[in-house]
Amino acid sequence: MAVAVLTPKQFNYSGAEAYSDTADYVAATAVDGFEFLNDGKTLVNIKNDSGAVALTATIDVPNTCDFNGSSVHDVAIVIPFGDDWIIGPFPTHIFNAPDTGKVTIRLSAFADVTACAFKIG
Fold first, then answer.
1. Vertex 107 angle, CA 54 and 86, to 5°
2. What residue numbers bound the domain in which 42 lies?
3. What's the predicted TM-score (pTM) here?
4. Cis peptide leading into residue 89 (ω within 30°)
5. Number of domains in the chain
6. Closest CA to 22 of 88, 104, 115
7. pLDDT (tens digit, 0 to 9) for every residue of the chain, 121 residues total?
């Protein structure tokens, strides 16, 4: 799996500068999507500028859980073209891969899709 690695940035409670700094955004890879080390207090902002196409971001759920009343599943989120969505936080016992402690987000489109991770608290 070749993914773009996001390094969560500590969220500044004044917010605006941390959120708007485009240097912190990483382009999606053409193979899979994004991954990041998750402490349970991480949010991801995904921007979809991928040519008038809605984007499906699928968050892997590698562990058995009861999230949304289901025992095992991935979470799919549709992000319309031109939108940017903030997703999370991601409870570690549900979303973290047991061997790495990372969350993986797979994408249906890659061109002009970027993301940034933020740690809260």
1. 75
2. 3-119
3. 0.82
4. yes
5. 1
6. 115
7. 577 888 887 766 555 454 556 677 888 876 778 999 999 999 999 999 887 789 999 999 887 766 566 665 788 999 999 998 999 999 998 899 999 999 999 999 888 899 999 888 7
